[in-house]
Amino acid sequence: VQLQAYGGGWVQAGGSLRLSCAGSGRRLSRYDVGWFRQAPGKEREPVSGISWSSGRIYYADTVKGRFTISRSNTKNTVYLQMNNLTPEDTAVYFCAARGSTVAALSLPDMYSYWGNGTQVTVSS
């Protein structure tokens, strides 16, 4: 499966963005899909994830209540709605996919397929 992430941009603190992760080559319904981010000088960290088969969802504590992950079967796409953004959310955001497993959705090493990154910049 190939993944294409888009929807990043610049926004002021308190604003919103919606990221999209479009799958091609195979149906994303076969996979778990995760969102990760990496800020300058920091390690890649998990943001959110969804198991298409079970509906299981993960959110990092830092984004709970502000971000919402969702999926569209018809569009073969996973979305990340990001509200009430803060400068600490500034990072390159990546989407990734793996075959459905019971493993935690937050583990980047468990993902085999990675899309390009999309830059999110939040100004204060």
Radius of gyration: 13 Å
The 3D shape can be described as: globular
Major sheet size, sense and barrel closure:
6 strands, mixed
Supply the number of helical segments.
0
* Share of β-strand residues: over 45%
Q: How far apart, in Å, are the first and last alpha carbons?
A: 37 Å
The largest sheet has its strands arranged as: 2-10-9-4-5-6
Helicity range: under 10%
The count of β-strands is: 10
The average pLDDT score comes to 96
User: Spans of 5+ residues with little confidence (pLDDT < 50)?
Assistant: none
Order of helices and strands: EEEEEEEEEE
Q: What class would the helix/strand composition place it in?
A: mainly beta
Folded structure, characterized:
- This protein has 124 residues and is mainly β.
- 0% of the residues lie in helices and 54% in strands.
- It has strands at residues 2-6, 9-12, 17-24, 31-38, 45-51, 57-59, 67-72, 77-82, 91-99, 113-123.
- The strands form two sheets. Strands 2-10-9-4-5-6 form a six-stranded mixed beta sheet, with no helix packed on it.
- The N and C termini lie far apart (37 Å).
- The mean pLDDT is 96.
